[in-house]
Write a structure and sequence with these properties.
The complex is a heterodimer of chains A (about 80) and B (about 325). Chain A has about 80 residues and is of the alpha+beta class. Helices cover about 40% and strands about 25% of the residues of chain A.
Chain lengths: ~80, ~325
């Protein structure tokens, strides 16, 4: 099943880089994902996230507070 | 300890480049080499060490700690945690909402959020290396006071009524609940994870600020070498009361370039810029950022936003005047 990955953040540079990194690695490995960016503060509050960029996979927060490392992203996509 | 950078500059400028120690160019270049090398080394080493120490302190734990505190204790601790907790300014909004939806009053949340940019690792480090420990301690104490008193004013005004409706609702909901949700368990970090966090932080901060160091120190060096000794004292000295508000206003657009501004300040101080004016300028540069204030519009009404901004400008101006007046007695 295709994973829905959301990047939470107010559109700062780090959030952009996080989305790019995920999209890049997914394309590299031929994994189909539905990548979305969530910038609405109320929605971000709903996930209980306080440090952005954060990553949500299929509605579960898996990462918060920094641009994720490559190894982490690969684990999520596996 | 910092003498090694003076030797490095001596050797590079006077020996290798063969410039005359008494010449203006030699003097300015010496200042440049000494400061840039000193700041670069300190930035990398100190940010790594500081990050290693505070890697496991995060905003989630601060929130749990501040929730349901007595307001007085909350204000003090909010400000203290603001000074030491690492968090990216781009997370201000989620942090604000996270605190608010945990039932933490706006005053306490703002004590945290106001102190955080004022006392950040880069500014403190630069102040320490360029202006010495006395000025740095003074800066930290005053910065925390501004955060605490700012928070207190907002608390007394019951600033919660000026939140955006969804944020106000989240606050009320949290207040209504008698017990908070289970607190975030303390993350047990291994040394390896701490090292990774510290490396990320150092790399991130250095890549953001290195160019501002060059620009700032370059300007500082030019001032140092070419502006006459008494020019500042004559035009921006203690006698001119208006120089403090002007310094505060001038600091607003310089935001995010604190790294560049502090080296300039170093040379202004040696040229006789009064301590109060310097403090005020420094704080305004570091904390009063228009772009970030506008972002807060998403969670608070314009009235509250304007109030906080004006309060900050007023606070920095007062700090400047008070310290200028106290200088003779310090």
């Amino acid at each position: 099943m295709m994973k829905t990955i959301k990047v939470l953040g107010s559109g700062c540079t780090k959030c952009e880089k996080t989305a790019e990194a995920i999209a890049g690695i997914a394309a590299e490995r031929g994994v189909d994902i539905d990548l979305q960016k969530e910038t609405n503060p109320e929605a971000i509050m709903g996930y209980g996230v306080m440090r952005t960029p954060a990553v949500v996979i299929d509605e579960t927060v898996v990462h918060s507070g920094s641009i994720p490392h490559r190894t982490d992203i690969e684990k999520w996509l596996a | 300890m910092f003498a090694v950078f003076t030797w490095l500059a001596d050797w590079l400028v006077y020996q290798v480049a063969g410039l005359d120690a008494g010449s203006k160019t030699g003097d300015a270049l010496h200042f440049f080499v000494e400061d840039v090398s000193k700041i670069y080394v300190l930035l990398v080493v100190m940010i790594y060490v500081v990050s290693l120490l505070r890697a496991s302190l995060n905003v989630e734990r601060v929130r749990d700690f501040l929730a349901r505190r007595h307001p007085g204790a909350g204000l003090m601790m909010g400000s203290a945690f603001g000074a030491i907790t690492p968090f990216c300014s781009c997370s201000s909004i989620p942090v604000f909402l996270g605190f608010t939806s945990a039932g933490i009053p706006v005053g306490i949340t703002m004590a945290f959020l106001l102190t955080s940019p004022l006392i950040n690792e880069v500014a403190v480090l630069l102040l320490l290396s360029l202006l010495g420990w006395k000025f740095t301690v003074l800066y930290i104490v005053v910065g925390m006071l501004v955060g605490m008193l700012g928070g207190l004013v907002l608390h007394l005004l019951q600033a919660e009524r000026w939140l955006q409706p969804f944020a106000a609702k989240a606050y009320e909901r949290a207040k209504a609940q008698s017990l908070s949700s289970s607190p975030v368990p303390e993350e047990k970090m291994t040394m390896r994870e701490r090292h990774r966090f510290a490396m990320d932080e150092s790399r991130d901060i250095f890549s953001r600020v290195w160019k501002w160091v060059i620009i700032g120190v370059g300007l500082g060096a030019a001032l140092h070498g070419f502006v006459p000794e008494y020019w500042i004292t004559d035009y921006l000295g203690e006698g001119q009361w208006w120089s403090v508000p002007v310094a505060v206003l001038a600091g607003i657009p310089l935001y995010s370039n604190a790294t560049g501004v502090i080296p300039v300040i170093e040379s202004l101080i040696t040229k006789g810029l009064p301590v109060g004016t310097t403090l005020a300028f420094c704080m305004s540069t570091v904390a009063a950022s228009f772009p970030e204030f506008i972002l807060l519009k998403q969670v608070m009404k314009l009235r509250l936003l304007a109030l906080i901004f004006l309060m900050l400008l007023l606070a920095f101006t007062l700090v400047g005047w008070i310290f200028n007046a106290l200088t003779p007695y310090l």
